[in-house]
Design a protein that fits this description.
The protein is an alpha+beta fold. The chain has helices at 10-50, 58-72, and strands spanning 83-87, 90-104, 107-119. Helices cover 44% and strands 26% of the residues. Strands 1-2-3 form a 3-stranded antiparallel β-sheet, covered by helices on one side. The termini are far apart.
Length: 126
């Protein structure tokens, strides 16, 4: 009598592990992009405690952000890519940008980020 075969064949293992390897590789390629976003978000959040809306000027905010980006080693986005504007008595700093991670060949992953911080008495962000 012939015994039943148990387990997976080599082809079965390849079909099982190939999608998992692709997802793992995409995660490895996206990790630096998300770490960079965390640095940008941390820099914007630290602006809340550093400045009060009534005493801050636009040039002071830009200079402070440039220093923060230099310390955090943030190359993208630059301070020029951010939107800094008045909203009543408050300053609103908005970082909305897209970043790409090359996957392989001519395929890349694009990720959109948005972080907004309000400096002032009713400071809030998302």
């Amino acid at each position: 009598m012939r015994a039943k075969q148990r387990g997976l064949t080599l082809v079965g293992w390849l079909l099982l592990l190939a999608p998992l390897a692709l997802v793992f590789y995409a995660g490895v390629r996206l990790t630096p992009i998300y770490l960079n976003y965390m640095k940008v978000a941390h820099s914007l959040e630290s602006m809340k405690s550093e400045y009060k809306a009534e005493t801050a000027s636009l040039t002071d905010l830009k200079k402070s952000l440039e220093k923060q980006f230099d310390v955090q080693s943030i190359d993208f986005p630059t301070v020029k890519d951010l939107t800094i504007q008045r909203d009543g008595k408050n300053w609103v700093i908005d970082a909305t940008y897209d970043d790409q991670a090359p996957l392989f060949s001519n395929i890349s992953l694009q990720v959109s980020f948005h972080k907004s911080v309000s400096l002032g008495a009713s400071a809030g962000g998302d």
